[in-house]
Amino acid sequence: MSGKSARKGFLGGHLVAWGYALIIVGPMFWILSNSFKRQIDILMGTGFATPILDNYRTLLFSRQSDFLMNLWNSALVGVVSTVIVLVIATLAAFTVVRLEPPKWATFLLLGWALVFHMLPTLTFVGSWYVMFSNLGLHGTYTAVILTHIVHALPQTVFLMVGFLLNIPNDLIQAARMDGCSYGQVFRRIVLPLSFGGMAAAGALAFIQSWSDFAIALNLTDQDTMTAPVAIATFAQEHQIRYGEMASASVLSMVPALILILFGQRYVVRGLMAGAVK
Fold this sequence. Notes:
mainly alpha, 2 domains, 13 helices, 0% strand, globular
């Protein structure tokens, strides 16, 4: 009976896993198939149609399309905000973990990060819109980058604190006894040993920035519009351009998928290091 129960549990676990994978991957394949269909085939719900590339040609090479610029905007905002977030979060985590600041300061920093991370993004979008409009920064890269930094920083700080806690304190003490300053300890010991954690935190911060819609919708204009906002513009008042919307969605998924595929080893290793001390 125990063997049968174990097999049933094993089968049930596999069914749940495959069902979850179908829920995640199913819509992706549906969007991918629609990107190669004509508008009429999509509207009629045709399951199998002759694949075409017109949607991609229109999206990438038409003079009326700015989607390549939108992808560039997303990449620029994502890369710059991720680099700045990693620098600030790593320095903050090193300060909290190794420099032993007053407990009230640590509590205040981590408490702020936790509360800010729990609040919905839409809570702040209106205030950011008014603030950047008054400063004359609405519609600029600066506005979007700054808000993405603020949005991703709490999560990244918590992750980097977990990663740095796994660096043996004996290494830090030995370096200090050898005459290294805290700056030298940070450059020569902490940074090389925390590369996996930084890769994991950076990947999550970049994907969060790349997929952001609410912030970019309110703070960008035609020249700085990012890919998620551009995809939404295909749903127009009198027509929804399903084929081009699907093609744009597929293209917008490519950078994140490449990042995960090539950085999976570092991401998994870094997340495991941050989860177990």
